[in-house]
Amino acid sequence: MKFSYSWLQSFFVKKLPSPGKLAELLTEKIFETEVLSKEILEVDVLPNRAAECLSYQGLAREVGAILGWKVKKLDFWRKGKRKKQEENWKVEVESGKDCPRYSLRFIEGIKIQPSLPWIKKRLENSGLRPINNVVDLANYVMLETGQPLHVFDPDKLEGRKIIVRRAKGGERMTSLEGKTYPLDKEILVVADEKQPVALAGIKGGKKAEITSATQRVVVEAANFSRASVRRVWKKFGLRTDASWRFENGLDLNLVKTAQDRLAYLMSSLYGAKPVAEITDFYPVPAVRRTISFSPEFLEKLVGIKISQTQISSILQRLGFKISKRGTKQWRVIVPSWRLDVTHQADLIEEVVRIYGYDKIPAQTSIANLIPPARNWNRYWERKIKTLLVRSGFNEVYNYSFIDERQRKLFGYPSEKMVEVANPVSKRQRYLRPHLLLNLLKAAGENRKYHEEIKLFEIGEVFLQEKDQCLERTSLAGILLAPDGEKGFFQLKGAVECLAESLMISDLWWDDYQATPEDFSAQIWHPARVAEIKVGDQEIGFLGEIHPLLEEEVKIPEAVIAFEINFSDLAKLASEEQEYRPISSQPIAKRDLSVIVPLATSVEKVIRKAHQAGGILVRDVDLVEVYQGASVARGKKSLTLRIYFQALDRTLKTAEIERMQRKIIISLRKNGWMVRS
Question: How far apart are CA 76 and CA 260, in angstroms?
Fold first, then answer.
């Protein structure tokens, strides 16, 4: 808002600092201020202080508090005689919520003329255009006190009644500029007995306009609610000096102050004759707030000690009153114009800003810096994502929902599904029980645009167990491959590489054994799926998606996927790396032929040999797989090469043979035939 330096000076006996110095003081203590000229200051009044400081009186209070000066009081009209012809005028306010206070006063003996030169100059310096003496004085008082006023010509109103109400459907109002506005029931208007004559708190209408023929006026001073004013300016894009003040809130007591100030100026400057108020609709008078205040708490909060004498002086200069002053607790009465002060912290802020933030010494805080505990799940999540991206995968984020069609397609029983109580659409009826459902859909969409599809996701999955919803974190990956077998081993290698990078050394692959309650069996190809195990713990599955599902999602390539319990994987992962020295001792090799059923996995046989041999078995390799005349039907012969080595000595033949017999016995316990 623009402020006239000379007008601001009229509130003080002493000479104000120069415009530049005053701007520096205001910027330091309250608002950013710019000097536009020797006469005009641009003050950036913040919304929380607009109720008071969008006025000369309010800003003068702040300057007085900063400088420690007294502010001159304004002169008000205090005489009046009620006349009979105004007795019949009535005011009706439909809602005290829309308009908590409304007052009218008649002023007679009006002669419309240009304003006095000094009035014009002050208005122009403040950014307003002079019109005539009556309208200009109403604007003058608004700038001076912060309370908007509106002036009607009562002889142009229908009936002897002013009504503050919501507009009726189909009503229209023509403004002073001649623009017509269509009204609805959301708009608050000031009306006579027939039609609206003003948009409440924003703009007057053409009907009751002040003209050169006007001989008496009725002055409106009201307090319209913020919401009602904002609704109007948002609907029509109207924002006036009056609406600017109303939408930020105003002190209810300003209504009487502005009425008496305008009456005084009209009487003293132009010889008009104010009449006592017709009415003052004020059903719920404002109650001044009282706040408990502790000087000790101020010291504790700010970190410096300000004397109680200084605190008391600052509060009183700002208009606060101390009703009760104890040794530790004070009772502070907040002035009605300070709508922003509601708590003790607000009082402390007021004291400190006037005292001076620059007087608070900078101190290095002394505290123990305790690093937060590492969130291991987040750590391993980031690490796994990085490793998979390096392996050529792309991360996707899918919705956590599936629809009824997906549930039936993948064979999930409805009693195991977590159903959303208020789904946004039918496509989001259930929470997903697996990540592969939406990953498969994402792969189908992406293959339209990319040749190589390798996707992964880490997210939550949900299952219903009796009356409980079970939630866990899962990791899943998917790739499309023209050759299903090659794709299987490619994805198997990616999982093994991931496990190795996470320092999981005993990962292996086992035959998939579906249990009766395992309804995920319908996802996988019956002959191309394996369980992912670490030690004896199953952590997930890897395999080819069932051909029927591939056809359903219209993917011609083989779809290879894995899904791993992320929580289990994170628990097994380790940052520690174990280094073993390279042995200088010779390696002894022994070959064994193991005849097993065709369905037996090589991985299982090798693992059994490793476990039986102990730490002296350095490695076990598959040399040959044979099926022929010398092997019974339904069987296969696996030739294994076992490497024996110690770190500290050369193994003797007797030791090697003893370990070999131990391995043979272990393999035979599984029903396999062993030939050395």
Answer: 5
Helix axes 653-668, 602-613, angle to 10 degrees: 130
User: What confidence tier does 82 reach under pLDDT thresholds 50, 70, 90?
Assistant: very low
Residue the block writes with tokens 């090798």: 606
In sign, the C-alpha dihedral spanning 272, 275, 280, 286 is positive
User: In the CATH hierarchy, which fold is given to the domain comprising 588-675?
Assistant: Alpha-Beta Plaits (3.30.70)
For 524, 548, 550, 553, 559, the CA distances from 556, given in Å and listed in that order, are 16, 11, 7, 9, 9
Q: Are 279 and 104 in contact (CB under 8 A)?
A: yes
Q: Which two tokens stand for residue 547?
A: 């051909």
What residue ranges do the domains of the chain occupy? Answer: 2-67, 84-116+126-131+147-281, 290-357, 376-572, 588-675
Who's near 191: CB < 8 A, 6+ residues apart?
Answer: 162, 163, 164, 165, 197
User: Mind giving me the DSSP string for 69-104?
Assistant: -PPPPPP--------GGGTT-EEEES-TTT-SEEEE
Q: Give the per-residue SS3 of 193-211.
A: CCCEEEECCCEEECCCCCC
Which pLDDT value is given to residue 277? 64
Report field, pTM of the whole predicted structure over 0.85: no
Structure tokens at 490: 């490619």
CA distance 532 to 542: 7
pLDDT surpasses 50 at 516: no
CA angle 255, 257, 261 (to 5 degrees): 120
- Tell me how many degrees the CA angle 168-169-174 measures, rounded to the nearest 5: 75
Sheet arrangement for strand 290-293: 290-293, 330-333, 321-325
Q: What angle do CA 645, 650, 651 make, to 5 degrees?
A: 65
CA–CA dist 560, 544 (Å, integer): 4
Q: What is the CATH number of domain 2-67?
A: 3.30.56.10
Task: Output the CATH code of domain 290-357.
Answer: 3.30.56.10
Tell me which residue of 163, 141, 158, 161 sits closest to 150, measured CA to CA: 141
- Which runs of consecutive H residues, i.e. helices, occur in 366-515? 376-390, 404-409, 436-446, 484-501
From the list 233, 281, 219, 253, the residue with the least C-alpha distance to 146 is 253
- 359-365 own/partner pairs: CB under 8 Å, 24+ apart: 359/304, 360/302, 360/303, 360/304, 361/304, 363/303
Spatial neighbors of 555 by CB under 8 A, at least 6 apart, are 440, 443, 444, 447, 480
**CATH number attached to the domain at 84-116+126-131+147-281:** 3.50.40.10
CB atoms within 10 A of CB 62: 22
CB atoms within 10 A of CB 478: 24
A 10 A CB-CB count for 425 gives 8
Q: Domain 376-572 - what CATH class? A: alpha beta
- Contacts of 477 by beta carbon, 8 Å cutoff, 6+ apart: 388, 393, 439, 454, 455, 456, 457, 491, 494, 495, 561, 562
Model confidence pLDDT, tens digit, residues 469-499: 889 999 999 999 888 888 888 999 999 999 9
* Angstrom distance (rounded) from CA 278 to CA 267: 18
Q: Which H helix or E strand runs over 655?
A: helix 653-668
> Do 84-116+126-131+147-281 and 588-675 have matching folds?
no
